[in-house]
Description:
homodimer; alpha+beta; Aminopeptidase; six-stranded mixed beta sheet; four-stranded antiparallel beta sheet; 15 helices; 20 strands; 33% helix; globular
Amino acid sequence: MLSLRSSTRLFCAKRLAYQRTVYSQASSDLKRVFSKIDDLKPRFIKRLKDAVAIPSVSSEPDRRNELFRMAQFIKSESEPLGVTLQQKELGLQDGVTTSKGEPIPLPPILQGTLKGSGSGKRILIYGHYDVQPANLEDGWSSDPFTLVEKPDGRLVGRGVTDDKGPVIAWINTIQAFKEAGVEIPVDLVFCIEGMEESGSEGLEDFIKQEKSKGFKGVDGICISDNYWVGIKQPVLTYGLRGVSYYSITISGPSEDLHSGLFGGTTYEPMIDLTHVLSRLVTPNGKILIPGIDEMVALLTPEESGLYDKITFTINDLKDALGNDTTIHETPKEALMSRWRYPALSIHGVEGAFSSPGAKTVIPAKVSGKFSIRTVPDIDLKKLDQLVFDHVEKSFASLNSKNKLKVELIHAGKWWVGDPNNWNFEAARKATETVWGVEPDMTREGGSIPIALTFEEELKKPVLLLPIGRGDDGAHSASEKLDTVNYIQGIKTMAAYLYYAGK
Amino acid sequence: MLSLRSSTRLFCAKRLAYQRTVYSQASSDLKRVFSKIDDLKPRFIKRLKDAVAIPSVSSEPDRRNELFRMAQFIKSESEPLGVTLQQKELGLQDGVTTSKGEPIPLPPILQGTLKGSGSGKRILIYGHYDVQPANLEDGWSSDPFTLVEKPDGRLVGRGVTDDKGPVIAWINTIQAFKEAGVEIPVDLVFCIEGMEESGSEGLEDFIKQEKSKGFKGVDGICISDNYWVGIKQPVLTYGLRGVSYYSITISGPSEDLHSGLFGGTTYEPMIDLTHVLSRLVTPNGKILIPGIDEMVALLTPEESGLYDKITFTINDLKDALGNDTTIHETPKEALMSRWRYPALSIHGVEGAFSSPGAKTVIPAKVSGKFSIRTVPDIDLKKLDQLVFDHVEKSFASLNSKNKLKVELIHAGKWWVGDPNNWNFEAARKATETVWGVEPDMTREGGSIPIALTFEEELKKPVLLLPIGRGDDGAHSASEKLDTVNYIQGIKTMAAYLYYAGK
């Protein structure tokens, strides 16, 4: 979501430039794998390029066949490496058709296994092969579905970091083990979906159904679908905020009206909406809905101390924002606001005039969209009730004759794991081996609801192992993955599997 | 802008069903003209059908050639009747190109004259041949550019009432005089533009330039580009509100952000905007910007009495709104709110998420659009300053680090004429002759800025002579003109010219 700024700075941070390195901590087996990863770099970039070239946008029904092509591509790249992948069909997508009105199938989940040398550990790898929409007109400097290698090391294209890069990186990892003649010391189970950017439709049911079948015996889950906090310091992620997304629909006159003919004579839904929206949150982020703060877990001295250790400055945040629009003055306050406190964002209004120019319309029906990022120990059902009550009360106080409907559009729960279990331990050691530094243990402001589903359903620890940087700009028109992060990320994945099996 | 509701009711209002009538008040000359109009009804409907078939949408650059086709059509229909029309070119449109990036010419103004029998009166007829956009997907029951004659008498299609119907009606009027062998007792001057739906670009300059040339010697102006207040009672219009259209742009982070990653850490422009917008007006229409009320002309007992005479009930307003979302309980209050008090409408937000569904974006830059309908004696320059001051003060009180820009997008002044001058007198007598009732003398909530320009530049009285009904749904996907209004409207125009010349 962020553009790359001051890219020249990357060259100053020497540790982050891609180079062959001697990994003193690594075993000879791992060194052989790392060396092979270096050798295969051109092949790995080519593989990512081929993946980016398939415009597998899950939110565009007319491109649904591209999702099937993409699934097939992953299958055909993996199978020569010994991975058995099955395309699990999920039936038709609910309520969605192509522009010609034809129903469309959900993209398949790729489920499969790779038998390792048998330490007994069985690790489930989750990723997704669908991407956000991308059009040249959105501001891309070149065709978003053609991967471009920039002189500064950036690989630019839709999906390079979210999430084709990590998914292809896993395939590359397996190839490197194989070509280095080193056995992978764990069994792998794959769950690669094609609907993540569209709400992961069908995945939760699939996990529930497979927990006693294909996902049986899994010891831990590894998800690589997020980012470092900054641009230099590797991290492991043990917490995510949830998100509850709401809409407030206010309907008035039965059709859009001309403001000249009717302005001043009728209650206008858009006016009511601005009043109701303005009562949700203050400009400096204080949520005005009573009862939410009281559900937030208290900050313990132990937790408070964790934030002091994170490699993050307020200037990092300002860089990411592109200017000084930060609410907080200290990095600790900013990190806590991102990771452990709820936040309410207003996203926009549907049904009102939204084009450039001037239109003198009184919109008859408008929907304001907002969401609340949730954190421990917010009870989501209770949250919904607090939101509904507050919005209804705000609206009632307006004494408008219009009609209000407030509803939850979707909700994903927050998740916090234990950063000291074996799964994180293996990833921590892997990160140290590859990057030469201890990773920061971080949480995320964003939401990956499926993390919690895996943990709740399989009752095994989930690890979030990001390979991209905080400025990768997932979802933006400048999405990138740095070559060094891609290649070192593959090594980190390899070392993770290696240490998880030892 | 309104759909037709309870169309069956139209049959109950017997006077409004189309039928040949004996006009007892009319002179024998006028009776011959009226009879000819009845005879030519099929021809007149065909002419309107041909006009509707040309999709002359001025706001769609790729259809610019249709505007030229439409101008040509009017020319070719008028010239056999003795009207000399010149296509006055206005140069290229500022800042607008076709989808291929080609600059486009402004549509021509049709300027011309028709010499009458010479009473000395010289009347300028204004109208426009461009229309609002229309697509089948907007909810039209049939192709919007194919006029459909409904069994209940409605003529449905884009532009039938706004403003192709009235423009073609003037041509029909001339044809009826000619074929009835009756001389038109006034000289006519035409000014038919093709940019009315897109801000009348070029017209004001044209009027200023022609006032001592083509428009020299004009005694009065007649504009037929508005509607009755209701659906039964003919009206003449002697006042219009002005409109001042503003945008409030708030910019924050340099790019759109992911609300998970940044929610709670940055000032969000959309949140600021809801606060600023909510301080503009209350749900029941009270403008919160200090100083505006003080500029509104005081209500005199004489003026107050005028509203009591208007054929208008609160149920008419409810019918027009489609339900009971009226602010006022009495028709008088509602009429005054529409005609003589300012009103502030919030139209929408540009730059925020406006599609169906859920997107977790923090928009980086949003523009709220609102407008104020202005009335006597509001000073527009002073109004702008009051708006800017209030918005800036509201924003400052938020203590946000975001940036604010508030600007005027366009302004058109209010107009109030003298309903007792010869121009209105002729139209009043014409209406009585054709409809058998005295017209209500009304003002309009909407704005036709060019009315004031004509009056100020030519220093002659402007008359607004609507032929369509209040439920015609100009700009909507059910735009219609009732056949009876079309045909009786032509007769009213004919009688107006007749009486203006006597």
